[in-house]
User: Which sequence fits this backbone?
């Protein structure tokens, strides 16, 4: 096993993964920073290999998406980042970047990013399983509530019958009694 000389903390990478268009993505500038290259160099390499990056691997943000992202992230200050709308990369796009950026650092960072994406996917699946189990418990509880209500209604009927007995007396009856 190759020792990891880079050791980027998981939190750093996780904080650079955003949910846009229902996909987990990373910004071109964040990836460039992690790979130790300039954003324009990363974009240049991508443009030279566009056939490797279909729309489900990368896409350019709309102006509205970019403005929304800027408002959500305090570090995206005007002037501090490119004047161009960023490109974002999905997990598959990030994986493909390692093949167009031929550096050892890009390879190592890519491995770490892929591990984080896998960990996030696993956490989401565990979370989904927990949600499904909770829904099953809720359904059972709803059924239990209905059953308990039914039991109490039967008990109420039995109590009412005990208070108003309508049974005939048994035993010897006189002729004037009936």
Assistant:
């Amino acid at each position: 096993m190759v020792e990891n000389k880079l050791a980027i903390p998981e939190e750093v990478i996780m904080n650079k993964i955003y949910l846009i268009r229902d996909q987990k993505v990373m910004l071109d500038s964040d990836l460039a920073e992690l790979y130790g290259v300039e954003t324009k160099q990363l974009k240049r390499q991508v443009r030279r290999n566009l056939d490797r990056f279909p729309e489900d691997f990368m896409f350019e943000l709309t102006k509205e998406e970019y403005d929304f992202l800027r408002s959500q992230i305090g570090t995206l200050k005007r002037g501090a980042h490119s004047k161009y709308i960023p490109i974002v990369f999905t997990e598959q796009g990030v994986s493909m970047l390692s093949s167009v950026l031929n550096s050892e650092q890009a390879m190592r960072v890519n491995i770490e990013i892929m591990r984080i994406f896998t960990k996030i996917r696993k956490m989401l699946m565990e979370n989904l399983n927990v949600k499904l189990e909770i829904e099953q418990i809720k359904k059972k509880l709803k059924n239990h509530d209905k059953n308990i209500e039914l039991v109490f209604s039967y008990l109420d009927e039995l109590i009412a019958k005990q208070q108003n007995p309508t049974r005939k007396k048994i035993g010897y009856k006189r002729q004037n009694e009936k």
